[in-house]
Amino acid sequence: MIRFDKVDKSFRSHSALREVDFELATGIVALLGRNGAGKSTLLSILAGLAAESAGTIWLDGTELRRSRRVLRAATTLLPQDLRVDPKVTGRALVHYLLKLRRRPFGDLDELFALFGLTGVCDRPLGSLSGGTRQRVGLVYVFAADTPVLLLDEPTQGLDPWERLRFTEYLARVAADRLVVYSTHVVADVEAIAERVLVLDQGGLVHDGSPQDLLARTPPVWVAEGDQEVASSLGSRVLVTAMKRIGDDSYRLRWLGERVYGHARPAEPSLSDAYIAVTGERA
Amino acid sequence: MRSFRFSALALPVGALPLAAGWGSGSYGRPPFGVGTVALGVHWIMDWLVPVCVAAVLAFGTAGTGLDRRIAASGASDLRILWWRTHWTAILGSIVACGSCAYSLAGMSGEPFPDLLAPGLAGVLFALLVANVVVSRFAAGPGVALAAATSITGTVAIGPYLTPFTDVPAIDPTLSNWMRGVPDRGSILSSGSIAWIGAGVIAVVLARMCPRDIAWLPWTAVEDASDDSI
Q: The pTM is what?
């Protein structure tokens, strides 16, 4: 559906994306990376809002030239911080956006109900919580019904129930379309993503299934120790978790070698794997 | 969608003392046979009104409206969308220009069409400038205000201040008077047509070059700003 061939993106002297290669078909693709890794830049290019500095982009087998009108028509982006008019109601916003994009309205009431917005979709957006506004954005994205949906941290501000509703619906709609969403919530990736792209400093450092990412994890170790042990480990290995379990007692989890005699092996998690591939940058 | 910065309406308030002074005939040295009030109301319609419209539209519409990342994915181009999104402010400017010309004509005894035609031409030019500054270059409110008022001011005022050259002026009557000639010019001048034509060409060029908004630098920077890249 969409193919990136050695795509670079630079802002003046700063390189935001470096030789990014991938091909995306239908399904759910999670985009992971630290702040500044280039996730939003990548989504902007996928949405046809930003142009690459070098490389080639293909949509349905056709190389995209200067115009991105076709790409914009095929995609719907939900930005991370959707800026809305606080005086406009959720229903009016969704209607306006669909009209702007010349998309059919479909059964909006069903979507509002699905996302628990039936009682609030006629209230001004300024009076709604951040999570509720985010759900209005999700209604717009799903109502737009384009072949490609791009979601920038869509679960931000959603409570666990809302998140569950979202992931259930996402799994349903992804059967015949491409959904790319960036997130910092590794639990979301484990729950629904079929494929994970990990960006680090503008480069693509992983492209595969969550299981492939897990397989790349170095040995994981867990041990308990005092403050001295914790400090010592922190300076020698990549600690992925530290929990205080008592007075001057900590449980630590790290990647790599068994540098502490009392350590025992542990099952790697996707969070461990993500930290491992994105390195040790501070 | 609400999309206008209403504080922009405060900008013309700063021009009111000037308008009141000109309107009361306190300034200007007209040629023999032309009243100072007549000269003043032409100044108001030919200079102040277009510059005020440029200021209000440029400052009022810069960076407002729908989230650009969503708007840019619309079927309509952002630069065309500006006209649709801000039609109430645009219509308001035209109505204000008409009512200003009507009241000044009643006050000064000048023919209404003689005040309306150059005023409307100046306002139309100001709208075209505001469109290019805001929607093509995506300037912030302050920069948009400065750029739009400078360009509109240069075109609206410049020709009258250079009476010994052939720079086309929007109002031939005022142009004559500024050169000490008491004759009236035609209502529809070649200057109006030339400047509005230049404005339309600028709008069309802004739409066509570059042809795709993905290549506009502001879009890329703004869209990625939440991620520090």
A: 0.77
